[in-house]
Amino acid sequence: MTKLPFYEKVGYAMGDAAANLVWRGALAYLAVFYTDTFGLTAAAAAMLFLVVRLSDGVTDIIMGMIGDRTNTRWGKFRPWILWSTPFLALFMVLSFTTPDLSYSNKLIYAYVTYIGLTLAYTVNNVPYSALMGVMTPSDTERTSLSGFRFAGAFAGGLLVMGFLPDLVAYFGEGNDAIGYQYSMYLFAAILIALMLITFASTKERVTPNTDESSNLKSDLLDLSKNLPFIVLPLLAMTLFFYYRDIYSGIFFVIIMGSMLILIKRLIKKTPKNLGGTQRDMVDLLTNKPWLILLGIGFLTMMFNGIKYGTIAYYFKYQVGDELMAGKYFIALLLVSILGALSTSYLSKKLGKRQLFIVSLLLSGLLTTAFYWVPKGNVSAIFALGCSAEFFAAIMPTLFFTMLGDSADYSEWKNGRRATGLIYSAGTFVQKTGGGFAGALVLVVLAGYGYDGMDKSTIASSLPGMQLLMSWIPASFAFAGAALMIFYPLTCKQNQQIGNELILRRTPLAAA
User: Fold this and answer.
1) Residue 189 forms part of a structural domain
2) Which range of residues forms the domain containing residue 333?
3) Nearby residues of 455 by Cβ (< 8 Å), 6 or more positions away
4) How far apart are CA 16 and CA 377, in angstroms?
5) Residue 1 forms part of a structural domain
6) Distance between CA 241 and CA 253 in Å, rounded?
7) What digits encode the pLDDT tens for the residues 200-229?
8) Short-list 285, 321, 288, 6, CA closest to 145
9) Cα angle for residues 406, 298, 484 (degrees, 5° grid)
10) Contacting residues for 223 by C-beta, under 8 A, at least 6 apart
11) SUPFAM superfamilies, alphabetically (predicted)?
C-alpha cells in the first residue's frame, strides 16, 4: 500500500501542530521574552541561542542513530513520539517561567531550561520527521503528506503566535511573567493531546535492510570518536558569527580547511575499514542531493527565522501596537496553510526544484520591499507579508519531502538506509538556522544599542529592525535560490529510484 488514507495524513499533521506550539512559540517570542520580561541583555540572549546550537549538533545526530536502531512492536520512530511528549510539555512551561533569582542565576536557569527544551524537542521531532520517510515508499505521497504536515505546523504556530500576546495579557493582568507561564500551561495540555493522536493514527510501512554487523552501543562509541566532525565546525562558525573579528575568522578558516582534508581521507577508506557511524557519514557526505538540502535547510530557516524573530519587536516599536503582532501572525499562518496545501499540486506542475527556486526568489523580492514601507502603514505590511509568506510556506514543505527523496537515493546507491540520520540532519540544520537567526536578530539589535529594559535606546534601534524585516533575511533567500540550481534529482529520477527500491524490498517483505 503506497497511498495513505486521509485520516492518517491528518493524524500525522497533528504532531507538527503540537511541535509548533513549542517551535514557533519559542522562535517568535522567546527572544523578546528573554530581553523584555525575563531581563536578559540582548547580547547574553544571543550567546545563549548560539551555545545551545552546539549541543543540538550532537544530540540530533545521536537521536537519528537511535531511531534507526530502535525496534519495537510500534515501529522505529512512533514510540519516541509517545515517550518524549511529557518532557517536551514540561520544559515548554519551564522555559517561559520567570523565577525570582539574581541575574547570574537567571542566566543559568535560562541555559538549563532552554537546553532541556531543545533536547526534549530533538527526542520528539527527529523521530517524528523520520516517520514520514517510512510511512510510504511513494515520493508523491510524501509530498502530499508533507503538505498536510506543514498545514498542521502552521495551524499550531497560529495558536501560539496569533493568540499568545492576548493570552499573556489575559492571564497576567499586567504581569507578563505570570501571563507567559499560565499561557504555556494551556499550550502544554494541547500539545500532549495532539501528540497522542499522531501516535495512535500513524503506521510505519517501509522496512529497510538492517545492518546486523553493528549495534547502538558500538556505534555510539564510534560516534564519540568522530564528534570533531560535528562540534568543531559549529564552534568555529559560532565564534566567527558572534565576535566577527580577525582571530575568529582565522580560526574558522583553519577548522573548515582541516575538516575538508579529514573528510576526503574518510571517503577514500574502504568500507571494511569503516565503523558503523563512519559508513553512515560517508554515505551522507557522498550524497549530493542531501548535501545541497543541508545548505538549503539552513538558508531557508535563516530567511524565515529572522523575519519571525523580528516581528514582535517590529510591531511593538516600529508600528507601535504590540497586540497587532498577534493579528499579523494569524494572517501569515492562514496564508501559510494555503501555501503548504498547494505545494503538492504546484510541484506536479513545475517540479520540486523549479518550485523551490521560484518560491525563494519571489518571497525574497517581496521581503525586500519592507525596506520602503512607510512607518505605521499597516495595510502595506500585511499585504507584503502575506504575499511573501505564501511562497515561504512552500519551502519547508518541499524541504522535508525532498529529504525523503535523498534517503531513497542513498538506499538506491549504497544499499543501506539511515532514514533517522538523514532526517535528524534536516531537523538539525533547521534548528541551527533558527538559533542563528534568533541570535542574528539580537546581535543586530545590540549593534544598534537596543536594551529592552531601557526605553531610551529604542529610537536608535529602529533602522536595525527595518533591515531585519527586509534586506537581511532576503539575502538568505537569494543565496538559497542560487544553491538549489545545483540540486540533481528530477521527478523522473525520483520515480525510477522509488520503483527500483520497491522491487528490491519485495523479497524482504515476503520473508
Assistant:
1) yes
2) 6-206+213-510
3) none
4) 33
5) no
6) 13
7) 999 988 776 555 555 556 555 555 555 555
8) 6
9) 55
10) 61, 62, 65, 277
11) MFS general substrate transporter
Give strand pairing partners of 75: 72
- Residue written as cell 543541508? 294
- C-alpha dihedral (317, 319, 325, 329), degrees to nearest 10: -130
Amino acid in position 335? V
Task: Quote the CA–CA distance of 41 and 43 in Å, as a whole number.
Answer: 5
Angle 359-364-369 (CA atoms, 0-180°, nearest 5)? 135
Residue 311 and residue 172: Cα distance in Å, rounded? 22
Distance CA 330, CA 139 (A): 31
Which of these, 399, 402, 404, 397, lies nearest to 340 by C-alpha position? 397
- What does pTM read for this prediction? 0.68
The one-letter amino acid code at 115 reads: I
In a domain, 29, yes or no: yes
Please provide residue 75's backbone torsions phi and psi, each rounded to the nearest 5 degrees.
Answer: 110, -170
Task: For residue 76, report the phi and psi dihedrals to the nearest 5 degrees.
Answer: -85, -40
For 90, the grid coordinates are 514540561
Nearest to 28 by CA among 401, 316, 318: 316
Number of domains the chain contains? 1
DSSP assignment letter at 26: I
DSSP state of 77: S
Residue type, 124: N
Q: Which residue has the cell 541561542?
A: 49
How many CB atoms are closer than 10 A to CB 134? 25
The answer to whether 152 and 13 are in contact (CB under 8 A) is: yes
Cβ contacts of 29 within 8 Å, gap of 6 or more: 160, 161, 164, 312
72, β-bridge pairs:
75
Residue 265 pLDDT: 67
80 in a structural domain: yes
Cell of 356: 523551490
Which domain CATH number covers 139? 1.20.1250.20
Report the C-alpha gap between 78 and 71 in whole angstroms: 10
Q: Which amino acid is at 189?
A: A
What count of other Cβ atoms lies within 10 Å of the Cβ of residue 108? 12
The string of pLDDT tens digits covering residues 98-149 is 998 999 999 999 999 999 998 999 899 889 988 887 888 777 787 788 878 8
What DSSP letter does each residue of 226-276 carry, written as one string? TTHHHHHHHHHHHHHHHH-SHHHHHHHHHHHHHHHHHHHHHHHS-GGGS-H
Residue 185, all three cell numbers: 500551561
Return the number of other C-beta atoms located less than 10 Å from residue 209's C-beta.
12
Distance CA 396, CA 403 (A): 11
- Using alpha carbons only, give the angle 208, 147, 348 rounded to the nearest 5 degrees: 85
